[in-house]
């Protein structure tokens, strides 16, 4: 059974840090492009970051460049999103997913099975 589980969210003050984890089961994460999305209340889902399977290239949306870092640990079959210098506008539910391509950011999820349960990130001012 294919499953993705995001974790590591929480409540943090502005300027703080969190590390989100995206753990996979039923498939090897390293074989897939993996993206992080976030959705704030009343807003559309947006791609935040992604990492390519074939070359490890990464992509970040402009608002998180220099603050967020995506990485992978093949031994743990887990992708991470290190989030530093958090801002209240980063507050959202964060999801990870296997995506079709990371060339211009995470846009299309590979299939419903490859969409992980989200984790809430709340940044207080």
Strand order of the largest sheet: 2-10-9-4-5-6
How many individual β-strands?
10
Q: Which word captures the global form?
A: globular
Chain-averaged pLDDT = 95
Based on CA atoms alone, the radius of gyration comes out at 13 Å
Strand residue percentage: over 45%
Treating each run of at least 4 consecutive H or I residues as one helix, how many helices? Answer: 0
Structural class given helices, strands, pairing? mainly beta
Characterize the largest beta sheet: strand count, sense, and whether it forms a barrel. 6 strands, mixed
How far is it from the N-terminal to the C-terminal residue, by CA?
40 Å
Unreliable spans: none
What string gives the helices and strands in order? EEEEEEEEEE
Overall helicity = under 10%
What does this molecule look like?
By secondary structure, the protein is mostly beta strands. Helices cover 0% and strands 47% of the residues. The chain has no helices and 10 strands. The protein has strands spanning 3-7, 10-13, 18-25, 33-39, 46-51, 58-60, 68-73, 78-83, 92-99, 119-124. It has a 6-stranded mixed sheet, with no helix packed on it. The radius of gyration is 13 Å and the shape is globular.
Task: Fill in the keyword field for this structure.
four-stranded antiparallel β-sheet, six-stranded mixed β-sheet, 125 residues, mainly beta
């Amino acid at each position: 059974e294919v499953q993705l589980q995001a974790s590591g969210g929480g409540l943090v003050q502005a300027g703080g840090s969190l590390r989100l984890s995206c753990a996979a089961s039923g498939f090897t994460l390293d074989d897939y492009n993996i993206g992080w999305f976030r959705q704030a209340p009343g807003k559309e889902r947006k791609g935040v970051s992604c990492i390519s399977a074939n070359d490890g290239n990464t992509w970040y949306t402009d608002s998180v460049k220099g603050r967020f870092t995506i990485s992978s640990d093949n031994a743990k079959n887990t992708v991470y999103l290190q989030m530093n210098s958090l801002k209240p506008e980063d507050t959202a539910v964060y999801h990870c997913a296997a995506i079709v391509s990371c060339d211009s950011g995470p846009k299309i999820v590979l299939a419903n099975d490859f969409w992980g349960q989200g984790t809430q990130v709340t940044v207080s001012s």
